Amino acid sequence: MIYSLEDIQFIESMFSRFYDIGATPSGGVTRLGYTKEEDEMHDLLAVIGKEMGLEVLHDSAGNTFVANTGDDEYYLIGSHLDSVVDGGRYDGNAGILAGLLVMHWLKQNDLHVPVRVGAFRCEESSNFGIATLGSSLITGQHKDMDLSRLTARDNTVLGDIFKERGYNLRPEKIRGILGYLELHIEQGRILEEYNQHIGLVTTIAGTRRLNLYIQGKSEHSGTTPMTMRQDALCAAAELVLEIEQIGLAESVRSSVATAAVVNVLPNAINVIPGEVRLQIDTRGVEAASLQEMERRIKEAGKAIARRRGVGFIKEKITDTEPVQLSSVMLDKLDQIVHKLGISNRRMISGAGHDAMRFADICDTALIFIPCRDGVSHNKNEYVSMENICEGAMVLYSYLCEEYKES
Q: pTM here?
């Protein structure tokens, strides 16, 4: 099957309807999880679903589904509709658009493959500091955690939001999924660099995020001799460079380490920095590599602290293991992209996605399409409508093959 100009126009039409929701003065969008802007995105998806003659469903976590049949068992095409602060318009949204196009083709060709397109709430961690919230809730990922006290950027509390909307932080676990498929923009430059159109994801990287606290002594910057200082920021600067070296050493195992946030107190020009908090993001597809980076960061922090006479504390914020996706689905998708003649490569995902929440409950696959210059989480994010159509064609072809076999 080859997509047509009409298919490109279908995607463009859908994309334009979502375009202005959450628009910011700088040209990006802010559609944070469980806010009115994300609500508008979900409401519009429901409207579009009804216009297409599809059934619209909502679960008690606020996720939205459009279904082409009433079957209890179905294939699920999933993604999200929220964004980061002042982000782009394609991250997440491209996957929903591709799913709608697949549903459009199934209806055009009178194929009764049971499919649902699911839009999951709060995939980004921008609002509550925790990612893939909507998909995690319905797959039972957070059943042992108290999420009710999570606080949004505007200081509203998740428990209050759920109570007001009639949602449930302990929703019924999703059932009946024959297989989970997700299309996402790559959020990197690999596909574009190698002029390839489809990425077949083998593994989603695990993440360990750390708070590192360095306690020095705040003193007058003009009267304290250099040899008598306990400068927390100088210790932190040394540790940041060491973390870079740790990440480089583990890059042979496809791991990364990033010193992403620096908070300095008292942050005044005439005072020696007395306290620093670093937030560290480490990711990798091997659990042993994540463990090694955490161990080396802790050792480096303690050694620097001893040498400089400052205090050091490590606190783990999150710890998620790498997720292996279905090798069976991957092999079938590999055959399909070769049959379609689409250039492709197998690759890992350094970013987390809703797909990782489904891997324990059903066969799960994630495919990437290129984004210009690898830019994402940015107003300059761009993906061509042709690439979305091409990715949708891979999903559609997979479903058609499954339909034949059944």
A: 0.91
